Structures are given as structure tokens and as C-alpha cells.
Amino acid sequence: MSDSTRSAIYRALRFAVVMLLVAFVLHRARLTTPRGWAEWFETLRGSDLGFLAASLLFTPLVHFHSTVKWYALTRATQMSVPLGRLYYFFVVGRFYNLILPSNIGGDLIRIRMLGVESGRYADAAATVFVERLTGFITLVLYASLAIVVATAELRSAWLLYAVVITSAAVCGICWAILDDRPVRAVITALEGRVALLDRLVAKLVTLRNSIVVFRDMPSALAIAFGNSVVFYMLTVVNVWLALRVFEPTVGFASMLIAVPIMMFVVNIPLSVGNIGIMEFAYTFVLGAFGVSPQAALSAALLMRLKMVLAAAGGGVVYAISEGRSPSADVVRAAVPEQPR
User: In order along the chain (340 residues), what is the average pLDDT of each group of 10 residues?
Assistant: First the structure.
């Protein structure tokens, strides 16, 4: 079977899974019947405009805190880039988070823009990687605890299996960072076979060498993990505000358990912009905590609207500031430079 055939089958399977999730959401929210649509419109008509305004205004605070975490890591590596400049890089990255799966585009752009600003591309990549890794480790731990606490409500073994598999993958990444043996084994196995692989391995080794510097910066890592905890608490508030627009009786305490599980599911890279995944996570998880499917879907769509607004703002700011389309930069960031 050729690579193109395997790729086509993989894309078809991903599309089928996303369609099944969308069908689940529509069925759960009863949007396959006229009565269900009437109930959903009634939910929308009862929206609390005060909480809607609070929800929209809260989003920039979450983004600013993410920038503060990134700023702390750049300062630890002696990269003197102002916080305001990093915030600009971050909001531009939001544009790519919307159109590419699993936030890959946003991270590539942030790395490229910080690399151009500082002249240290490997260190720029290391700060983004460590920011992401510390956040993901925190999310896995938080979601694992939440799933254990909510076992009776969820009754879903697949979530526990997914957390176990993800935890194993995170442990493997951390092992490769902390121990030289896995890296040496990969280099020995691949070196000299294909020129393109040699260049890729060389770039990965350079990136790892920049990342391992953080092993000797326990205070910087502690601050990064602490900021990750604060970020997820802000995220709980963010989701609660969006849900409170449509569900006046929802409790904040239950969101402390539901939100990390939802975020874990949303991070599964199945579709561009997590279309279908996000809506499934909200209706499935919040439904287990007694939230009506109409309110859960409405909150998911509001969160998506906020993502679109943030992404549009980042794209507009970039186009105005740089005087060119951001699409060219994502190509340059994604394609390695060829030797001359």
C-alpha cells in the first residue's frame, strides 16, 4: 500500500469519526427534530447578556496570562523581548490555532516571530515547547484526577484509557529530554540513511539541546508549572462564564471537575480547529454533570465564537503591522530551509 493511499485512508477515517461526533451532538441536543430546534432557540432567547459581556471580556485576560508564562521562560533563557511584543506574537498565533489542527500553526508562528526578534531560533522553539509541555503535563494530571473523581458520573472507560496512553507518551517525551540514551539510539538508527532524515535529526538534536538547559533551572520550571495551574483555573472560570450565559443554575464547583476533562478531549487532534471535537466534549461531559444539551452546545458555540474573534483579531493585527498576509509565514515556518 502506497503512502498516498494510507494518507487518504487516514483522512477518510478522521472525517468519519468527526461526522459521527457531530451526529452525536445533534442527536444529544435533539436538533434532529423541530421540537429540539425550538428548545434550543428558547435557550438562546433566555441568554444572560451580563454574563455574555463578562465572558467576552474575560478572554483577553486568559490570553495575557498565557503570554506571562511564556515571558517568564524567555527571561529564564536571557531573551530580552518585551512582554508586549510577546503578547503580539501570541495573538497572531491565535489566528493559526483556528485554521490548523492541534495549535500547530500558532506555535510555529510564535517560534518564527520570536526567533526573528531574538536571533535565537532554537531557544525560541525551546521556550514554546517547554511552555506547551508543562501545560500539557498539568492538564493530564488535572484531567486524571477529575476523571477518577467523576467516575460515577461519566462511566466511560475510553476516557481513562486515553489518559493512560497520553500519560505514557508524555513520560516518553520527558525521558527523551532527561536521558541521553533514547536520543543516541535514534541517531544511531537513522544516521546516514536519508539526507532529509539527517537534517531533521540534526534540528531535533539542536532543539533538545536548548530544552535540556531548563533541567538546570528548577525555579523556572516551578514557575511554569505554577502558571499552568493558574491558567487552568482561569480556564474553568472562562468556561463557567460562557455556560452561565445559558444555564443560570450551573455550579462553579462542578466545573472544577468537568472543565479539565473537556479540555483533555478537545486537545485530541482529529480535525482542523477541533470542529466536532469541542462540541462533543461539551455536550458529553457537561451532560454527565446535569447540564442540558442545548445549554452545553450553546456554551461550546460561544467559546468557538470567542476563538474566532481572537483569531480574526490576531490576523488583522498581523496584516496591519507587517503589511503582508500571514499565510506566507506559516509556510516558511513549516518548511525547513534548504542548504545552499
Answer: 71 80 85 88 91 94 93 91 91 78 73 90 89 91 87 73 83 81 76 70 75 84 94 96 93 92 84 80 90 92 89 79 53 41
- Contact call for residues 135 and 68 (beta carbons, < 8 A): no
SS3 32: coil
Length in residues, the chain: 340
The ranges assigned to domains in the chain are 3-334
- 260: closest CA among 288, 290, 281? 281
What separation in angstroms does the CA of 98 have from each of 91, 303, 313?
11, 12, 12
Look up residue 8 and give its amino acid: A
Of 106, 100, 95, 108, which is closest to residue 310 (Cα–Cα)?
95
Q: Which of 276, 294, 261 is nearest to 155 (CA)?
A: 261
Cell 517560534 -> residue: 111
pLDDT tens digits, residue range 123-133?
898 899 899 88
- Nearest residue to 113 via CA among 74, 77, 72: 74
Find all residues with CB under 8 Å of 76, minimum gap 6, and list them.
214, 217, 219, 220
Enumerate the H helices of 245-292 as residue ranges.
252-266, 277-288
Give the model confidence (pLDDT) of 174-230 as tens digits. Answer: 887 778 787 778 777 777 666 667 777 777 777 777 788 888 888 999 999 999 999
What 329-337 contacts at long range (C-beta under 8 Å, 24+ apart), as own/partner pairs, is: 329/109, 329/112, 329/113, 330/96, 330/100, 330/105, 330/108, 330/109, 332/112, 333/108, 333/109, 333/111, 333/112, 334/108, 336/199, 336/200, 336/203
Q: Using alpha carbons, select from 60, 17, 64 the residue that is nearest to residue 274.
A: 17
